[in-house]
């Protein structure tokens, strides 16, 4: 029946699954605290392209290519804290098993932390990470003043089945190798 294909799970697998979702995701929904004059202090969400590194190099740290003209970036300039939702709906499990992307069996990862501009020493890596996953970005109009940001991950939550979320430590998350959900 509908619930008969329980996937392999358990606490020791969660950090690897979280890293898989971070690495396999081409986009995510970023939530900020609005600085917009009409909705100050309220949540604001925006879906953005991301990359945690080139296909052969997962870092677990999400990188972004953004413009100051984006309302979310304006929010981050006032309050750099954000949450990033990375749904498994892009993966094959949900489609193959005809599971709605909002069904708890479709895993989702939420990372929270501080968004910071990428340092000059890290710009080349950020370029490689973003442009290898999103080649069209190289041609985006220059007048939008694009720059690279990354999330300094502080908290990691994984929902992988019914019954709530698992809190994963930063240490476990960053030392884990990506493992399919």
Automatic annotation (TrEMBL):
InterPro entries: CREG, CREG_beta-barrel, Split_barrel_FMN-bd. Residues 14-175 form the CREG-like beta-barrel domain. Coiled coil: none annotated. GO terms for cellular component: cytoplasm; endomembrane system; extracellular space. Its main location: secreted. Keywords: Glycoprotein, Secreted, Signal. Transmembrane segments: none annotated. It is found in: Secreted. It comes from the Eukaryota. SUPFAM superfamilies: FMN-binding split barrel. Belongs to the CREG family. This is Protein CREG2. The lineage of its organism: Eukaryota, Metazoa, Chordata, Craniata, Vertebrata.
């Amino acid at each position: 029946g509908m619930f008969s294909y329980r996937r392999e799970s358990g606490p020791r697998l969660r950090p690897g699954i979280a890293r898989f979702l971070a690495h396999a995701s081409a986009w995510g929904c970023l939530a900020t605290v609005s600085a917009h004059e009409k909705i100050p202090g309220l949540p604001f969400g925006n879906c953005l392209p991301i990359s945690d590194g080139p296909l052969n190099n997962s870092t677990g740290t999400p990188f972004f290519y953004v413009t100051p003209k984006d309302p979310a970036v304006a929010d981050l300039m006032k309050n750099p804290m954000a949450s990033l939702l990375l749904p498994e709906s892009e993966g094959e499990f949900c489609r193959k098993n005809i599971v709605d992307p909002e069904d708890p069996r479709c895993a989702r990862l939420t990372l929270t932390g501080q968004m910071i501009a990428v340092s000059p020493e890290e710009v080349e890596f950020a370029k490689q990470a973003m442009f290898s996953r999103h080649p069209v970005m190289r041609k985006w109009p220059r007048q939008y003043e694009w720059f690279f940001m990354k999330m300094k991950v502080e908290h990691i939550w994984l929902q992988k089945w019914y019954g709530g979320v698992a809190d994963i430590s930063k240490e476990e998350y960053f030392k884990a190798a990506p493992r399919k959900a």
